[in-house]
Amino acid sequence: MRFGVNYTPRVGWFHSWLDLDLDAVREDFEQIAALDLDHVRIFPLWDLIQPNRGLIRPAGLAAVGDVVDAAAEFGLDVNVDALQGHLSSFDFLPAWLTTWHERNMFTDPDAVAGQEAYVRALGAELAGRSNVLGLTLGNEVNQFAARPHPHPHPIDADQAEAWLVRLLDAARRDAPGIVTHAAYDATWYDERQPFLPRHAAELGDETVVHSWVFNGAAQLHGGLGAGSARHAEYLVQLAAAWHTDAERPVWLQEVGVPVTVVDRADAVTFLEHTVRNASAVPVLSGITWWCSHDVARSMLDFPPVEYDLGLIDEHGRVKPTGRAFAALARELRDAPAPAPATSAVVLEDDGAHRASCAPGGGFFEAWVRAAERDGRGPQVVLRSRAKDTAQLARRGITHLETAGDGAGTGVPVLSGGAAATMLP
């Protein structure tokens, strides 16, 4: 199990890439390493490194390499995001994609070729550095593809897949480590979203999920209710349902304590419950907490939630959540692999189903009821795969139940390794 943080520079936030101070970066990394964490995820701003489609700044690429090398000084591995893109409510698309040069970033041939060139150049810069965990195409790039983004670049599911395949292939040519892509939870919860669950579960070297309970989970269930404290666990189980390889890892790449919907006094308890619940899922490969350092109050116009998400405050002091996450990392990193949950809730995946998976949806609420009843979150099985007894056996599932009202109408599916009664 990997335990790390999404690195938010304490001084200057991500604007610090404009005038990179490696001594300040080293101070931040020393604090992170002191929490016994093993990796950071970093976010070079795309518009600074590729300000023109034909210009990929060598100095910008070198700065990324310098930050990776600085992390190595403190024993930290690094995952690098490429197309930044979007961070904390701000967009950083380069000027050659906007206003007078507006073009669809996913389908315009010149735009995609420019992105491909950048991803390859970034991968080449990272090549040969032994502490590179891998490269992610970008931070929640799917949010550009549909509403509620105010200026979406609309595409369909086939176009989303073509874009992913091309850029993932480009990254694999040069970048070391694992190659992934990251979506916010509309992929799992919103029918408008052209980036689909199967894209997350089939493309890239690991399936990536981002868990945020301000999406309705905490509003409906309270900050410490099962629908909140198990939301990350739920997303990992939901993602795994789409895997054809039962051993494929799921990376909880973002999760944090939003004190706008979780009482500040409950922040440590929320963190502890979230981490322990998610860590009970065998396919989980790691947790990368959002984030390392609080956004400084001198930085203006951020949504209120963004100022308090760090494990370390803006003055460099470790917060109670930081101490709690460090203790859990030490305890769980080398713990024995957990056994899989033997029960599973069946998701009707024929036709539109994603709203049902969102907080407040029928499937989500049925899963939460089952978790409260059993004290552990069940696995998820797609209806289209519910009769695949070999796959169920590989996943350790012996009991299926429907997601109807009052979940608990269970049907045994395996007994002593042999096929038994199946759901209709």
In short:
By secondary structure, the protein is α/β, with parallel strands linked by helices. The protein has helices at residues 22-34, 46-49, 58-72, 109-126, 157-174, 186-189, 197-202, 217-221, 226-229, 231-241, 267-279, 320-332, 354-357, 362-374, 389-394; strands spanning 2-6, 39-42, 77-81, 86-87, 90-91, 132-136, 178-180, 207-211, 250-255, 284-289, 343-347, 379-382, 399-401, 410-412, 414-415, 418-419. This is Glycosyl hydrolase.
Describe what this molecule looks like in 3D.
- This protein has 424 residues and is of the alpha/beta class.
- It folds into two domains: 2-332, Glycosidases (TIM Barrel, Alpha-Beta Barrel); 343-419, no CATH class.
- Helix content is 35%, strand content 15%.
- The strands form four sheets. An eight-stranded parallel beta sheet has the order 7-6-3-2-1-10-9-8.
- The two termini are 38 Å apart.
Q: Which keywords apply here?
A:
alpha/beta, TIM Barrel, 35% helix, disordered C terminus, 424 residues, four-stranded mixed β-sheet, globular, eight-stranded parallel β-sheet, 15 helices
Q: What form results from the Cα inertia axes?
A: globular
Name the strands of the widest sheet in spatial order: 7-6-3-2-1-10-9-8
Q: What would you report as the Rg, rounded to the nearest angstrom? A: 21 Å
**CATH homologous superfamily name of the largest domain?**
Glycosidases
The amount of helix comes to: 25-40%
User: Architecture of the largest domain, according to CATH?
Assistant: Alpha-Beta Barrel
Strand content: 5-15%
DSSP strand count: 16
Q: Write down the CATH class of the largest domain.
A: Alpha Beta
Please outline the major beta sheet: 8 strands, parallel
Query: What's the CATH topology label of the largest domain?
Result: TIM Barrel
Distance between the termini: 38 Å
Mean pLDDT rating: 94
How many separate helices? 15
Unreliable stretches covering 5 or more consecutive residues:
405-424
* Structural domains: how many: 2
SS-based class: alpha/beta
